[in-house]
Records
---
Amino acid sequence: MIASNTELLARGRQACCVPLPLAIMLNLPLALLSDDLLVSIVEHVSKLPSRDEDLYNLSLADRAFTQSCQKYIFRTLEFGSKKDISEKVRKAKKILEDNPSFANQVRVVHLLISPNECEWLFNNHTFISILQLLSKSSMPPHELHFGGYMLSSFMIMDPILVVRQLAQSFFSQTLTILRLTACGNVPLPLFLICPRLREVFLHEVGGAYPSYGNYPDNLCSGREAPLLEVLDYRNSHSLVEQMITPPPRFKTPVVLWSNLRVLTLSPHEKEGVACLQPILDAACNTLEELYLTSTDMGGCRCIVF
């Protein structure tokens, strides 16, 4: 079984934190290889099915590979699996505290949550501390994956909490890619708090209750709507409908369609197809690619236009 990236961080941190001159690190015949070739080897390994374990092993094989391997090993910080999420959060915080430079490599935060874990996570002081540690990076993460398991979706019971915590984090200034999976009651202000958001992927996602009467004004108005360039949605029509026509609580759009270049949806979903025309109308001057595909996010795509 491939170890989680948090486990790989823990196992590899001692081997990866002490940079040495290239001449000292290399053992023959690696000493004969150019830097470009060493980087190319790491890039090839990063594309293998067992990439996480292979990159970890390669980083230990010779320190010449360490820096290049770090770029991929630490790229995604993932929380959530069948293992105890609280233990993963604790370990991740310790690793980032012991090796602050690792935060510079993290580009993606992946929150794969089981039911009843969402509110716990966003109320957890250790998790909030991790976000603060990542905010000190020279380039904080720009991509967020959030949601449940496909066979165990969940409802966001306190969406205001989730939006507030993310609004107070670096994500409000850095997030460009958002992937939501297998979760319901997703609030529209999630888009408004991220003005740099450009790509949105929705799979088995449900919109929040339409009134929004209990939401603070600063989460529903007075914010710059993001200019989406990519939208991919499957079985998520209730949220997309609200994105197209927000409830009266919102005086301005929650997303702008005038820069949309790529749109993907499933023709097998009647409700989802109903959202197509208003999006086409709003993006008629910029849309370059329209894909009709299966309801499965991993399914093949057929370009239409």
---
Amino acid sequence: MDSIPWILVTILVIVVLLAVVMVVVVRKRKQPRRLDYRNYFVMGVVWLAIGVSLLLLPWFLHEEVSLSIGGFFLVMGVTYTILGLVNKEKWGKQVEVPGTTTRNMMIAIIVLAVLVVVVGELLVLYR
């Protein structure tokens, strides 16, 4: 039992050292990186969807306990979406993707979506 605080202290020291190394590496970079506000917009939309689904999950499962984490994702999603839309003129160039890559990606996304739906249904049914 006495070793648990030392483990936590060790993890904290490692995290702080990694943070210091990251700050040093970023400061030594010659050219500052431009912010791509398109990524903020995309992250915001994704977090909005996650937030709404986490807020509605207890209602769908007929539970009385609300998940407050859904509100966090909802607020972060709204914030990032607004930040991306306000700076729309600063969006980076859209990368052109070859047609075969797009087709393979769509197949992978559809298979993943079907798997998520099936696993979700099984979790709800066998709860």
